[in-house]
Amino acid sequence: MGDEDLSISYETLFELLRREKYKDDIQKLPETFFDDVLTYISDKKTEIGDANQTIDLLKATEHAKLRNQLSNVAKILQELYDRREKKILMLAMNKARTDSNIIDTTNLLDIEKQLFHSLVRTMQNYRKGILISVLEGREASVTDAEVKVIVEKQEPKKVENKPEPSPSENALKKMVRFTHAVPKFVGKELEVYGPFQEEDVANLPGDIAELLIKKGRAVEISSQ
Fold first, then answer.
1. Whole-structure pTM over 0.90, yes or no?
2. How far apart are CA 38 and CA 74, in angstroms?
3. 35: containing domain
4. Count of the separate structural domains present in the chain
């Protein structure tokens, strides 16, 4: 099964879970995996909605089949996520303990890499504040200030704290209407957006809005 041109279906999701279940290493997924799954679920819900419009016995049977399939897809996705989450946790644990540069994260999705680095930072900070402190004869202690320092060191770009966005920053924002459901995501400065449902409206930074529009997830709303 080629991952780059993977077409989401009940069968392919089941196969992805099977691979994740029986292989020790975390398996490669397409970068657009979660977006593709959202589209698949949305399409299935549309089919269910169409089936609800008729009292035809055959359609009613198909409707029941679709609902059962959608329920099974939810179970598959949850188990797939749980297994990948456990593997990411093990990778982060190894990285935090050894600080090795050979931990392989190439098969992680971008959003999973964020989880991995966040776990590593937290584990390293508590290891330093508890274990290393005690071994060096100091009281075990982990402060918020230490957490902040470690996070800032890991980030490629340092951000100045600003109490309120300036008028020029607001001018760069764009109002968009979502045409597909979009899960919660993190911006460049670690700000959290979403989750958004289809037909939701939001005022977002220009670069994020443009990316969503380019991916066909949203359309710009005219300010006039």
1. no
2. 11
3. 10-95
4. 2
Q: In sequence order, what are the residues at sequence separation of 6 or more whose Cβ sits closer than 8 angstroms to the Cβ of residue 54?
A: 60
Express each pLDDT in 49-97 by its tens digit: 765 555 555 566 777 777 888 888 889 999 999 999 999 999 999 999 9
CB 211 within 8 A of CB 137: no
Number of residues that this document lists for the chain: 224
Q: Hey, what amino acid is at 55?
A: I
Residue 28 placed within a domain: yes
pLDDT in tens, 156-201: 444 444 444 444 444 478 888 888 888 887 777 767 888 888 888 8
**15, two tokens:** 């196969």
Q: Which amino acid is at 89?
A: L
DSSP code per residue over the chain: --STTPPP-HHHHHHHHHHHHH-SSPPP--TTHHHHHHHHHHHHHHHHHHHTT---HHHHHHHHHHHHHHHHHHHHHHHHHHHHHHHHHHHHHHHHHH--S----TTS-HHHHHHHHHHHHHHHHHIIIIIIHHHTT------HHHHHHHHHHH-SS-----SS--HHHHHT-EEEEESS-B--EE-TTS-EE--B-TT-EEEE-HHHHHHHHHTTSEEEPP--
Copy the structure tokens of residue 134.
């005690």
* Residue 200 forms part of a structural domain: yes
Distance between CA 70 and CA 62 in Å, rounded?
Answer: 12
